[in-house]
Give the backbone structure.
Amino acid sequence: MARLIALLALLCALPLAAQTEVGVSIARARADSTDASGTTLAFDRGRGFGASGSFASFELAATSLRYDGALRLGGSSASLGTLRLVPITLTRQWHFGPAYVGAGAAYVKASDLSSADLDATGIGAIDVESKACWVANAGVVYGRLFVDAKYLDYRPESSAAGNDVRLDLKPVVISFGLRFKL
């Protein structure tokens, strides 16, 4: 009896296993600047790499991103250092031929900002909050190749020298990569 149940479970799982894919990608990202009290916190175009797995119209993905930041006040600029973000996303996707759209949740792990310029100005390290947010997703698959876009509503609190500022980062991540069926 146990063998029959195991055999039936295996036969039911085979179509699901055929739907399982893994992917690897390189990514480019954009983050919005934040204006706070006449000072602009700006981040250049991000770059990174990622990995994903999809199963039965759900995708779990993680992307490691890196942005170089600048603090702008008047005509002068100072380095904020490097902001590292790792968004881990879970999306439900709806497929329409080679295209898909999706929505879901993300947890964004963030690093703190630090640089010699911040130390010289007396600001010191800037703490950036890691937090959960929602994500919108769209993409196209052609054979093994894919292009994927994600919008993350990530607006973390940051704090330095007793001041709190909400960063309006709201990253848009465009990934290019390869997918493989398991």
